[in-house]
Structure formats: C-alpha cells, structure tokens
Amino acid sequence: MNCLKYVLLSALVIVLYLPLFANSNNIQPPKPGDPFPDVVLKNMEYYKEKTAKLSSLRGKWVVLDLWTIGCRGCFKSFPKINDLQKKFERDIQFILVGQTYPGVQQIYQRFATHYSLSLPVAYDTNLFNLFRVTMVPFIIVIDPLGKFYNSFTSIDLNEETMKMLIEGRNPQPRTLHDDGFESYYPAPDSRNIRYSRLAYANPDDVPFVPEFEWPCHWSTYNKYGVVFKGVSPLILFRVAFFGKFFMDPYQKGWYDKYNPYLVLEGVDSSLVIADVATNKNLYDYTFMVGDSNISSQKLQDMIQDDLNRQFPYTITNEYRLMPYYRVTASREQKEKIRTKRGKAVSPAEQAQGITGFKLRNMPIERLFFEIYNHNQLDTLFIDETGISDHIDIDLDAIMSDRESVKEGLRKTGFEVDLQYKRLHTLVIRPRKLPGEPDGE
Q: Could you tell me the residue ranges of all domains in the chain?
C-alpha cells in the first residue's frame, strides 16, 4: 500500500509548525511530584487578564492543552474540552496553549466563534520548549498545590478521569510516544505459509488518537503482508477488501466507486465501531506469508478469509446504492476558477487548513483531498465538475464541519447536492451458525 505521498502532504503541515524543539538553557522538565515552574502565560484571550501566572491558579487543578496550528486532532477536541470546563469549572481550570505562529490567533478565534467556545487560550512557546514537545496534543496537568501531576493524552480528557483527579483517585494516564515510523515485520517461517495474529490493542501502545486514517504509521504493508497497531475494524476491512484504507481522490475511477463507510445489518455497532476513550474495538493485527512472490490479490483474498474467521460476524463487499454529495460547476464557474498560472500554492504551505485555504495552480483533486482529509467519518464529496485544468480558489469553511464545507463550496460557486449511486460497500452481518437455515 503506497500512502507515502499522502503522509508527506498531510504531515508537512505539522512539520512546518511543530519542529523538534531545542532547550537552549538545558532546563530539565519537571517530574511528577515536582513543583511546577511559575510560568507566565502570555497573550491570553477569553480570560480576565492578558497574562496569567500559574501560581495564581493554585487551589484548582490546572489542565494545559498544548496545540499547534496544523493539528486537526487538537481542534477536534476543543469543543469537548469546552464542555469539560463548564462541568468542572469549580475545581479545574483548562487553558489552551497554542504555539506562536503568524495567523494562529485569527484561526483559533474563527474556530471558537463557530463552535461558541469560551475556553481561555494563551499563545506562548515556552512550555513547548520546557517539555521538548514533539507531538500534539500534549496535555500538562498541575495539582492544586502547584505540583506537576503528569502529562496526559487527549484520550484521558474525559469526565471519569477528571472526577478521579478531583476525588484523589490517582488516574494513570496513557503514555504519549511516537513509534510510528518503526518498521516491524516478524520474519515469517519459511516452512509455514502464513502467520496470523489478531489481538486487542494495548492502550499504552496506541501512539495517537486514531480518529483519522492519517498517518500511515498505524500500519505497515509490504509484499509479505500487513502489520497494524491500534486500528479500527473499518481500516482492517478496507485493506482486506479494497486494498487501501484512504479513499484517494487522485485515483479517478476508484475514489468515486468505493464507499468508505460500513453498513451494519443485524450487527450491534458496539461490536464494530472503535471507541478510543475506552480502547474498545481497537486492534493489533499481523498477517504475514512466507512467499514473497504471492500476488497482491491473493494476499488480499487470504486476509479476507482470515478476518472473516477471526471476527464474530461476516464481512462482504457488495455493490450498493449509497448516498454521496455531488459537486458540480457551471461553465461560468469553470472559467472563473481556471488557474491564472503562476506559482502553485497548496494548503500545506499555509497557516490555515482547519478554517479554509487557498489553492493556486493546483489540480481539483487537491480540493477533494483536503475535504476528505478532514471528513473521513462522513459522507463522500465526489467531483463531478468535469474540470481537468488546474484551478485557483479560496475556500472559506470550517473543514471539520460538513455543513460548513458545503456552504463554503457553494459560496465559491460550486453546486452541491445529495445524490445516490452504486458503490462497492462493506456489509457486516451476523455469522450464520452451523446448521442454521438461510434467511428469507
């Protein structure tokens, strides 16, 4: 599975805004139980002061959520944190800490207005440097006495964990680590045709919240088989039946013929849908063969059979009538957005992304790439404009919000309507027991 170019495109945004921070003063970050440095948070908004000393917040638990401009998962969690702040305002103070970067305040303000957020936010890089942050979201928890409690992942930010903190029940946060680009392949025994292992993922081994298919470091794939860590059944099934787990707008004739979403018939969603907060339905899966000459199709067939054997239901690939959002353009619109040439500009080069972006001299597939990249758990937007030239557009939308994307496309001059077409679709049904009669 070749997903390298998409990892590079998507990861470039994060790389631009999240360098490996160096600590020039060699100041060591505090360990759990140490007094937390009396950091002054600067450039505060949605707060009573423009700066805030952490010592002024003693008497409450303090949760600092460090984020960057290119982190989709960070923005996705803000409405949840906003709700937690309202629920626990007497005992906990949540503060978002954004890395300073040109345009970051305007982007957050637009996002906050869209979702009616009232969370205090600071724009300050000092804590990033102190903790040598290389991945976000990075959560710092400080106890009411001003001591560093621990660093959390965004998965730990839930009501149960916050109650445990307040009640002194000592929750154990997950360890945030990055082993994503480690290549792990168990050497298949040459005497055996295959090695198969499916197990529930260890929550301490899940490096990020797998809300999206990005990046490919949840999986590796080569001619000997596949290795997945901490992924949902959906991703496993896509690889087994479609040979891919990203619905690639650049591959015409493929993107618009496969439905990325599961259809459940008589199977409870609790058996299939992943829940990262509880680690439910997240799996580690390894399937290897001893023959490097095996064809990709044969390997897929073997993985299909293996997953159908291992899961308590059956998975089939069917040609179903499914909904999608059709995006079309009038002749006038096509002419209007036809590129004026000049330097190519993509979202990866801009401090935008989550709140819209500019495309200059780029193929229209890049527009649909960005839409799907932010809406992987929603209905497909399919290009039926017939545009083959490069385009220039400014898309003004909250990219994580389907309705905002639809409205943004319409303001740009596209037409968007709900349609139905036959797509290859993964259907999940209960496993028929031996001797059980066929259905009607």
A: 4-166, 194-320+425-430, 330-413
Tell me which residue has tokens 């009038």.
330
163-172: Cβ within 8 A, 24+ apart: 165/61, 165/92, 165/141, 166/61, 166/88, 166/91, 166/92
- Closest of 375, 239, 218 to residue 283, by C-alpha: 218
Cα→Cα distances 170→30, 54, 85, 161, 299, Å: 18, 22, 20, 9, 46
131-140 per-position pLDDT tens digit = 998 888 899 9
- Residue type for position 413: G
Task: Give Cα separations from 3 to 215, 258, 303, 378, 404 (angstroms).
Answer: 9, 17, 19, 21, 28
Question: Angle formed by the axes of helices 104-115 and 72-87, to 10°?
Answer: 50
Q: How far apart are CA 226 and CA 235, in angstroms?
A: 12
Q: Is 86 helix (H, G, I), strand (E, B) or coil?
A: helix
Its pTM stands at 0.82
Q: Is the dihedral of CA 249, 253, 254, 256 positive or negative?
A: positive
CATH of 4-166, picked from 3.40.30.10, 3.30.1300.10, 1.10.3660.10, 3.60.15.10, is: 3.40.30.10
Contact between 109 and 48 (Cβ < 8 Å): no
CA 276 – CA 155 distance, rounded (Å): 7
Residue 125, sorted as left (phi over 0), alpha (psi -120 to 50) or beta, turns out to be alpha
> How do residues 295-344 score in pLDDT, each as one tens digit?
888 888 999 999 999 999 999 999 999 999 999 999 999 999 999 999 99
Amino acid at 168: G
237 and 426 Cβ atoms separated by less than 8 Å: yes
Q: What is the spatial distance between Cα 120 and Cα 143, in angstroms, rounded to a whole number?
A: 18
Residue (of 421, 393, 374) closest to 76 by Cα position: 374
Per-state percent for the chain, helix, strand, coil, to nearest 5: 30, 25, 45
What are 321's two structure tokens?
């009538």
Contact yes or no for 35/146 (Cβ under 8 A)? yes
